[in-house]
Every structure is written in structure tokens, then in C-alpha cells.
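Revision sheet: C-alpha cells.
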Amino acid sequence: MNDPFLKPGEEVLKSVEVWTNDPERKMIILALQGRVVASEVPRAEFSSTAYDFGIVKEGEVVTHDFLVRNSGSGMLRIEKVIPS
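Predicted:
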């Protein structure tokens, strides 16, 4: 599997090499299989996703706050915000 991020419900099959001190079986391979279970997942909720500033004169500074709430159970990270 090339994707380092597993999705909830996804089946996973991996193997682990275990090295021993047995001279006849120096290494054994254990096959591990499982299903990914989501535990803590963030969820971003926005009060609004657009705002109309109306007519703005050149050089005038306008601002607006967008409220974001994490309604999930995991940590919500907001990174690399780029305005359009």
C-alpha cells in the first residue's frame, strides 16, 4: 500500500519480520490483518463560507471574521491558509 494515510473501514494486511536467537529459524514472518477504525476525527463547521464586501474604494481596508468551530473529537489543524 503506497498511501500512508489509512481510511476508516479500510482492510490492512501487513507483515512483520521477527529475528530470533534460534540457529535454525533466525527470522520468522508474522502476517497481521485488520480493519482501520476511526477514533478521534476533527470536523470543521463554518458559520458562513462567503462574505460580500459590497463596493470597496481603492485603498480602503476591509475585514471580516469567519468563525470556525471544531465539532469533532480530534484536534483540528488549519494550516497554509491562502486567500483567493
